[in-house]
Amino acid sequence: MEQTTDGGFIVAGQSNSPTYANGICLVKTNSDGDTLWTKIIAQGNYSDFTYCIKQTSDGGYAITGATNSFNIHHYYEMNLMKTDSFGNFFWEKIYAAPYKSWGMNLKQTSDGGFIVTGQASFDSINENAFLVKTDANGDTLWTRNFGGTYFRWGYDVCQTSDHGYIVVGNNYNTSGSSSDLILIKTDSTGNLLWSKTYGGTSFDAASSIKLTTDGGIIAGYTNSFGVYGSDVLLMKTDINGNVVFAKTFGTGSENYALSVSITNDHGYFLCGYTCPTIAEIYDPYAIKTDSIGNLVWSKTYGWTYIDQVQSGQPKTDGGFILAGSIRNYALGDAIYLIKTDENGATGYFLEQNPVTVVGSPSITITTPVAITGSGAIVYSIADSLIHTTSGSQELPMCHHTGINEINNPQSPSSPTPSPPKPPLLLMKNKKTLL
Fold this sequence. Notes:
Layout: E1 2-3, E2 9-16, E3 21-29, E4 35-42, E5 48-55, E6 61-67, E7 77-83, E8 89-96, E9 100-108, E10 114-121, E11 128-134, E12 140-147, E13 152-159, E14 165-172, E15 179-186, E16 192-199, E17 204-212, E18 215-222, E19 231-238, E20 243-250, E21 254-262, E22 268-275, E23 283-289, E24 295-301, E25 306-314, E26 320-327, E27 334-340, E28 351-352, E29 357-359, E30 364-366, E31 371-373, E32 377-380, E33 387-390, E34 399-404, E35 423-426, E36 430-433
Antiparallel strand pairs: 1-2, 2-3, 3-4, 4-33, 5-6, 6-7, 7-8, 8-32, 9-10, 10-11, 11-12, 12-31, 13-14, 14-15, 15-16, 16-30, 17-18, 18-19, 19-20, 20-29, 21-22, 22-23, 23-24, 24-28, 25-26, 26-27, 27-36, 34-35
């Protein structure tokens, strides 16, 4: 999810449509979270996943994830898909390793192309962090993989001021009994400049990175240093990967951050989810800090289901937006948006101010041996293999307003007509989209 140039939002997820099950679902909303259009892009009888969507410089969208719809190697393959500003399919490229590959995050680069990171398997045992650079049409310029002794995954990537790239992810030990955060710095053509791991004696992982003027800010979770079973981890580094500060935050038995953003006051906004008890019912969890990681406020937005936030960011009006999913909801799984003010308040009756315990861990830094390589098999997917449909509904979360969902009058016709739209139903400041 991210805020678009018109002030609205674009959200991507997986569809459970009866006609196009396991397709990619795109939802475009206005600034209040009301649906403007939806698209389901389905490619066959198998599964397609999306992990990241970004608005591109032409107003359209780029999406990465994994697909096994084309059964190239009998496993999932990393894909990159491009649509226009209304979600209509332009092209898709698949970057296949000999065994499997996944796309976890992407950015549009300064030359108009794309950089995609994820993981790839070049043998039957190990998984490597995977980096793919393409031109504006998704055609490969180069690929790099960064391996170790077991699993090494890339979860987020940024282009740096020297036109190189910084990748953050996870590095598992040989037995898989523990993991560290890993930071990988490359030059402009993906050649390794340095890599560092950060962690303790248990499982520590990174999920998101944003560049600052003097380095980067990283979010994830830690089992090594948290007060609870796992705590949110916020770590600031300089441009060489040295730790400036590290903070942990926790309020329940499990706490995870999946996204970090830089706020207008130079602080940080983290979002993810927490398990308040051992019942495995998760609540959305949002944390605001100052510029050195001190807690400003924290919020949970509970419901009676498995409720997780996958992404969030500051809004242009000073508030925040969070996107996530509800599982085991009475009417099926759903995507939702939560809009807050600058203090995380929504007016939602299950909003809480949890007691968040803050820690300042001492993290061990190591320089791992990196096994680097290149190469991937690239496939272009024909338009005839892609099925597109439009239309979704907003589900009741509180009360019926009687407002009809609108169609964007400027949207070109889609290959499959939109089904009839039900009335819009919403909870104040919390929209659920299925």
